[in-house]
Amino acid sequence: MQEIKASMAGSVWKIVIKQGDSIEEDQDIVILESMKMEIPIVAESAGTVKELKVAEGDFVNEGDVIAIIE
Amino acid sequence: MIQKILIANRGEIADRIIRTCKKMSIATVAVYSEADKQASYVSMADESFLIGPPKVNESYLNVDKILEVAKEAYVDAIHPGYGFLSENVQFAETCSAEGIIFIGPDSKVINQMGSKIAARNLMRQAGVRVVPGTDGAVSTTQDALEAAKKFGYPIMLKASAGGGGIGMQVVQSDEELVKAFESNSNRALNFFGDGSMFMEKKIENARHIEIQILADEHGNAVHLFERECSIQRRNQKVIEEAPSIYISDELRKLMGDAAVKAVETIGYTNAGTIEFLVDEQENFYFLEMNTRIQVEHPVTEEITGVDIVEQQIIIANGNEMTVKQGDLSIDGHAIEVRIYAEDPVTFFPSPGHISVLELPEGPHIRNETAVKADYQVTPFYDPMIGKLIVKEKDRNKTIASLKEALLNYKIEGIKTNIPMLIEIIEHEQFLKGNTTTSFVENYYLIQK
Fold first, then answer.
1. ipTM
2. In the CATH hierarchy, which fold is given to the domain comprising B207-447?
């Protein structure tokens, strides 16, 4: 199991995957937006998206779990 | 006669503009979003108006709301600062239509300089060399490959409608170009609704050197020498200095004259900046023109003694500016560092609560900031929370004082780039003046 965590504080601008999707290593999961900067958050390894913990527009802090990959 | 100005901006630049207005006995009106209630400029202004929620399109980019406040407060003029509406053609037009002075150039000139292609063509007419590149937008991979054959690699790919480095990439080969063209074009389409690209020859080991100009409606135009702004991260400036130690008196005159000629050719008025890339053979190429006050204007003010905001207001009022080329000279050396709320290595934003803030103080130190202790830095705006400017007799003394000031810049609760700034100004290549636009990649990130 892999927890995908936010690398910065900001709001969830776009979610680019769905629960149940199988994804590859380095694939974008969500795009966070903060201070005029958009940062894609990527999967560290391949797997299936077990759970998405955020919705578009949500505010996350650095270190918050965004998704769980199995 | 301008007696009351609305500042259509926030943060440190709003503070900065209000200070000059007070000096000139001009009344000020601040506008702020719900996220900026605590900011110092809100209480500094004679009047302040809440204009909406934190999001920029509902507050600082909300033209209707800002103009409504301007009319309600009976202002004579609007100062747009930098960013936000400062280079917005429609905003400048609407201001004049409403009989409010827009403190900046004519909207027609903003429009011309806002288009990369139109700006390049106009500069060529003014006899200024431009970076070799495509004269129009390139929309297919095939056209891109043909253009690449003409200029040779490396090539800089840019989104025609771009800004902030989005859609920008350096490519070294046909293979890289094909890949990058498609992905950047898609990205530009997502961000700007326009996927057309523009290609330029990448000038290697270039320095970013810009000329500050002032021009009035009476045919007077002057340059206030150069600023060297090569130290950048994410294509945004981090450290700026004036003068540049790379520039000889001869080159300074050539660049200054070229900038003044350009300004006269396009019929520019008010303060503006012409950005150039300077190569290793001291050739300089037009990059772009910023038709507004720049973030880094204080270094020019420090070495010339000119209050640029004051001249902007005098010019906007239709008067002759009080600066003459023959009276201008360079006194000392000034460096500005931008304090960003961000991780010093990844450059990721770090909004949060500032628990402690103690600014360095001294006769050679100038602080520009709108934050304070017990202050919430929100994720809605640019990460720049302040600027520290130091001026001494020469560059070495300035760097020494700047280092001391940075060591005494006490900020707690959020991450900032201060460790990065200290590391850069201590670096032997920086001390030698070997500052190119690749400095951060070549000398800073390589050690991380």
1. 0.78
2. D-amino Acid Aminotransferase; Chain A, domain 1 (3.30.470)
